[in-house]
């Protein structure tokens, strides 16, 4: 009898813990109002095109991380606009304000396809790339296509930040490991709520660089928008993809003919400091900036001024080459 009761309570919890989904916060609503949508294979993909202040700086495409959205770049956006003629931001499928189809096989390859399709729609043929976390792997797929002449897109430079680009130095959080377990992941995703999110997400920020309560709410509202809590476990397939395509994606760095730089927050529990030496040993002519010790997994949010300064120095170095 107690087993039936427990099962019944579990089912009710799954149904009602995220019903209805919390509304978008005013900040995320304002972010949405500044953008548009385009169709990719029947799915709506959110994007923004921001005019820059430097006509000679070229176009910048930003690629966000897991589990968040293009809003991750909002704190550094003015600094990025100062460097470029345009800044393009988008939410990958399954993230933020874009569609999150429940019966969908999410992959890094498709996310790269979406990036290319957006640029074609905007009639942009060459870009600088700036990426973070999950977005680093998407950027490396774009770089691999560029290196192997599998795309008409020309990549001018690539700046990565705190991504698990090496399986050997990437340590997914315990909850991420649980979410990759068949069936368990689907149940845990549906049982997640704000308190669980805040605790787990806060763990990847530095002790002294935590988001404010309102910022946590902003992040959460974008994550669960469009019933995102139902598909988060599906997005984690990228962990296995990184091992499967390691030669292609790490190889793209090793064979790159374009300038590449890494901005790294060293308190990152997902990509701890062993990453630094591995990066220097693995990447020819390694270029990396290690930020202050208190900065963790979201350097563009935790230290926006330092992040912009580092990125600006990288961009200025290009003109000197």
Please outline what is shown here.
This protein is α/β, with parallel strands linked by helices and 321 residues long. The chain is built from 15 helices and 8 strands. It has a single domain (2-319), classed as 3-Layer(aba) Sandwich (Rossmann fold), CATH 3.40.50.1820.
List the SSEs and their pairings.
Blueprint: H1 2-16, H2 26-33, E1 36-40, E2 43-51, E3 59-63, H3 77-81, E4 86-90, H4 108-121, E5 126-131, H5 134-147, E6 154-161, H6 174-179, H7 184-191, H8 194-202, H9 213-224, H10 232-235, H11 238-244, H12 246-254, E7 260-264, H13 274-282, E8 288-290, H14 299-302, H15 304-319
Parallel strand pairs: 3-4, 3-5, 5-6, 6-7, 7-8
Antiparallel strand pairs: 1-2, 2-4
Helix pairs in contact: 4-5, 5-12
């Amino acid at each position: 009898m107690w087993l039936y009761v427990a099962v019944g309570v579990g089912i009710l919890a799954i149904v009602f813990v995220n019903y209805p989904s919390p509304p978008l916060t005013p900040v995320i609503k304002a972010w949405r109002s500044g953008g548009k949508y385009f169709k990719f294979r029947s799915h709506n993909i959110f994007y923004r095109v921001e005019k820059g202040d430097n006509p000679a700086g070229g176009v910048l495409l930003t690629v966000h991380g897991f589990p968040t959205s293009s809003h991750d770049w909002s704190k550094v956006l003015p600094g990025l606009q100062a460097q470029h003629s345009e800044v393009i931001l988008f939410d990958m499928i399954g993230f933020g304000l874009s569609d999150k189809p429940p019966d969908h096989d999410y992959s890094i390859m498709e996310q790269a396809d979406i990036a290319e399709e957006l640029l074609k729609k905007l009639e942009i043929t060459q870009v600088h790339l700036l990426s973070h976390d999950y977005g680093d792997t998407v950027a490396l797929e774009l770089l691999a296509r560029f290196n192997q002449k599998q795309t008409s897109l020309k990549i001018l430079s690539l700046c990565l930040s705190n991504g698990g680009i090496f399986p050997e130095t990437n340590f997914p959080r315990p909850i991420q490991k649980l979410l990759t377990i068949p069936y368990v992941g689907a149940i845990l995703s549906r049982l997640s709520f704000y308190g669980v999110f805040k605790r787990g997400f806060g763990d990847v920020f530095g002790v002294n660089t935590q988001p404010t309560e309102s910022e946590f709410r902003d992040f959460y509202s974008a994550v669960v928008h469009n019933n995102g809590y139902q598909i988060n476990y599906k997005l984690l397939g990228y962990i296995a993809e990184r091992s499967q395509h390691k030669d292609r994606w790490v190889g793209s760095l090793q064979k790159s003919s374009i300038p590449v730089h890494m901005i790294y927050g060293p308190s990152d529990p997902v990509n701890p400091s062993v990453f630094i030496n591995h990066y220097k040993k693995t990447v020819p002519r390694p270029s990396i900036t290690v930020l202050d010790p208190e900065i963790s997994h979201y350097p563009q949010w935790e230290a926006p001024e330092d992040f912009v300064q580092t990125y600006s120095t990288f961009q200025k170095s290009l003109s000197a080459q």
